[in-house]
From TrEMBL:
Substrate binds at residue 170. It catalyses: 2 a phenolic donor + H2O2 = 2 a phenolic radical donor + 2 H2O. Its EC number is 1.11.1.7. It comes from the Eukaryota. This is Peroxidase. Heme b binds at residue 200. The record marks 74 as: Transition state stabilizer. Keywords: Calcium, Disulfide bond, Heme, Hydrogen peroxide, Iron, Metal-binding, Oxidoreductase, Peroxidase, Secreted, Signal. Ca(2+) 2 binds at residue 201.
Amino acid sequence: MKRIMCVALPLVVFAVANMCYGMADAAEVKPPTTYLKWHYYKITNTCRDVEEYVRHEVKLFWDNDRSITPKLLRLVYSDCFITGCDGSILLDEGPNPEKNAAQNRGLGGFVAIDKIKAVVESRCPGKVSCADILHLATRDAVHLAGGPAYPVFTGRKDGGISDATSVDLPSPSISLQKLIEYFKSRNLNEVHMTTLLGAHTMGRTHCSYIVDRLYNYSGSGKPDPSMNATLLGSLRKLCPPRKKGQTDPLVYLNPESGSHYNFTESYYSRILSNEAVLGVDQQLKNGENTKQTAEEFGIGFEDFRKTFAVSMYQMGNFKVLTGNQGEIRKNCRYTNK
Ligand SMILES: *[C@@H]1O[C@H](CO)[C@@H](O)[C@H](O)[C@H]1NC(C)=O
Ligand SMILES: *[C@@H]1O[C@H](CO)[C@@H](O)[C@H](O)[C@H]1NC(C)=O
Ligand SMILES: *[C@@H]1O[C@H](CO)[C@@H](O)[C@H](O)[C@H]1NC(C)=O
């Protein structure tokens, strides 16, 4: 039996105010304490139309290249999970910026953020943080890709330099238990985690992150026994055994979304039929709560969309800087001097 839980987000009336979802550990979900505000720039009269400026720019990028959506999603995730949602992932500054960490290889979307920031600065100089721009832009890109138009509360400030050595993002071969603990340390429970991993409904990854599953799983000399044989065959063609110095091709995380880069529930149905590309995704089938959530989302696109909205909201509140705790950078790549 599925239990249904409804979470009312605090403060506001918006399209998805009441979010209901079935889950095993519902009691753990609480709306986070936050000092962020709904339409902060409007109510403080600092940049009334910033959300429209961002939406307009994101649409231009998306029309030109749909991969903007997974790129921004990954940027937000990397930003929030490392030192909190403070825009530190955007910095080029310091001896070894966060973005240079091995786990952040292949990050994209920086050029889009620079362009949006330049437009916003031209309208409202010195008013809108890079951290907020990142969240607003990601929300708009997710919506364009068929995802929910979730609420982004604003009023974040930008943080200072942070070092690549502080990056502790999990590897694609982390165990399920460790992954659950990792998300928990960021105030995210198993439902949030399973939902946020749904960002892998689109985007690409390098073969080097999956070759162990294709040829030598856990040093066994054999492929991952949990991988669907049809998928194994097609991925082996795309990712031949790698020799030193060879290129590292890209493969779609969800071949069903592929070059459309759209938001679909097939990420979950594929996990259930052993067709997840990344090991970290496939193992969601092995946990009681994570499997139950995948089963629910695999047949319930609306449940997935709504819970994605809640989970992005929750993640976007992690360790935010407000008031005098940070600054509003002029250029997202550098702190103000
Ligand atoms: C598989 O991995 C193990 C452990 O890393 C290694 O010792 C072994 O040589 C590998 N086997 C093949 C066929 O590459
Ligand atoms: C994703 O895009 C493909 C191709 O346009 C389409 O067939 C599919 O229905 C889309 N899925 C969703 C959920 O929008
Ligand atoms: C493997 O994937 C194929 C293609 O999607 C599907 O038809 C088949 O049922 C799957 N096999 C298993 C054992 O789930």
